[in-house]
Structure to design on (584 residues):
DNA sequence: AATAAAATGAACTGTATGTTCCATTTTCGC
DNA sequence: GCGAAAATGGAACATACAGTTCATTTTATT
């Protein structure tokens, strides 16, 4: 047992992914109890990283010695060296962006490296995404998509900072074969276009403080005309939240006063693709969708 | 020492951020060696999480007993309980978005929950951001910002999927008082606008496979006329990379064929604010910048 | 400057840990 | 079905560990 283990030609995995691959590769050939440990290890990597041999063994329903045998089977010289790999896995993803954000802010004074600026925006984006993943409500989402799904034409309303999101939605809806109309301020035709909307249509309105008055006003008019409004905004006190049929609260982190758009973008894509999926399901079966 | 420590009224921090705040709060009042440990702990949280009292003490340049005193000063009953907080920190951020992405993909078949779709886009965005944070090159970034800083007018070139990024750049540059010109396909005036550009200007061109021919052609013309081009694209084989003065390779993850824009957006904001910072420095001192 | 109090260093100790060993059971080849 | 080899359970072992103790030094107080 001790002489064949260390004559393996391949180097031992030093990172988790390689180890995972190795385990999956040998899965078939492992003894029962060892396989049991292997399965547990891949399912509960954190436990392996932090636990003691005894506690892990108990959780996995084996003897501590089996853990050592498992490690040795893979070529490690003991449980401890195997555990290092599981710990390394946690170390790698070490600096969360939330931490970086505070760090970046902390020493923003000592010379403005451009790298630091980009890092700041990356951190803000990452944090926004994290927050959204925790806060998004399934039911609100389902209602919004249902509502949009019923629309003949989806009107998209956003100005200034939110405009990029609107243009992305319009582009994606177009690609997905959903009829939509982007309200541009440039064209100056907003009032005419808006007057075409009926209660059988729907609106996606996006606005964050300080709310663009055009967006708010147009959304209000549309809502008053019976057109259902899905709003993406930043608080319950937003004017959009007052009359929207469904509204999302999106908390974007900012860097240097510039707020991220990452979470809003992801939500927008979710709404867009969600609607498209529904319609696709209604008609036939799914068709391959090209990269967009 | 043992009777005053546990009579603290406030609950002990169970999560890292609270602990960090507590330490920073008491920083002034801590004895020298204890403060030394505190500084080390905040700088090397991973070491605290995985190391032994002896190894950490050695790294931090103190006696092991000082570590225990540090923990007790904060109100914990020993080093081990303090260490739990540092370990918990690593556990929390356990499910990385990269992992979630594969999960989401894995069971994409079993009924298409809308939540799953949004999660997919969030995961793609997060992964894109992670990849960019690892790959971005400081020198390229500095060169690009230098180049843009020298421009009289910054022309922004992007179509279709990349257009939202362009519109965001244009908006932000406007807010920051940097002269820029967004090339819209809608207006049909692109050729005329482009003909105004001189070598004293600069171009930001954004395009990903499949490259919009208008973007590529216009960028090529501008470059041929001596206007320096900063390109954001997806590979060295991109047509934009051929003639760009500086180019960034951005690898965006995708979900269901829809690529994220998160990393591109963050980079774009970095370029924008980087240029603005440079110019602000050139003129006077920094002015407060409002949320955008 | 003298004294008390707090902080520090370093050796010590009980314990909990990873590992080894061996008896027993199971699996596999013939 | 028999014998050998591998696998397993469980206890014993050596040690590395966190925590304690105490002598010494440093800091604060009067």
């Amino acid at each position: 047992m001790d002489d064949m283990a260390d004559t393996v030609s391949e180097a031992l995995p030093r990172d988790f992914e390689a180890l995972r691959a190795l385990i999956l590769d040998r899965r078939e050939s492992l003894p029962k109890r060892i396989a049991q440990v292997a399965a547990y290890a891949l399912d509960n990597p954190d436990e392996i990283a932090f636990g003691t041999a005894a506690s892990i063994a108990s959780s996995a329903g084996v003897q501590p010695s089996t853990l050592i045998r498992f490690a040795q089977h893979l070529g490690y010289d003991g449980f401890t060296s195997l555990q290092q790999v599981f710990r390394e896995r946690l170390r790698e993803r070490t600096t969360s962006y939330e931490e970086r954000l505070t760090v970046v802010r902390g020493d923003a004074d000592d010379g403005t490296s451009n790298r630091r600026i980009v890092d700041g925006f990356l951190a803000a984006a990452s944090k926004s995404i994290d927050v959204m993943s925790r806060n998004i409500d399934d039911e609100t989402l389902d209602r919004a998509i249902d509502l949009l799904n019923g629309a003949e034409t989806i009107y998209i309303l956003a100005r200034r900072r939110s405009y990029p999101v609107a243009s992305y939605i319009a582009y994606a809806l177009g690609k997905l074969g959903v009829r939509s109309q982007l309200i541009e301020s440039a064209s100056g035709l907003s009032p005419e276009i808006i007057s075409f909307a009926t209660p059988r249509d729907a609106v996606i309105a996006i606005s964050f403080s300080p709310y663009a008055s055009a967006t708010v006003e147009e959304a209000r008019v549309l809502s008053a005309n019976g057109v259902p409004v899905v709003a993406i905004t930043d608080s319950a006190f937003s004017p959009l939240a007052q009359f929207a049929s469904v509204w999302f609260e999106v908390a974007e982190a900012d860097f240097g006063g510039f707020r991220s758009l990452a979470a809003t973008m992801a939500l927008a894509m979710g709404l867009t693709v969600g609607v498209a999926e529904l319609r696709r399901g209604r008609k036939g079966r799914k068709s391959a969708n090209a990269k967009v």
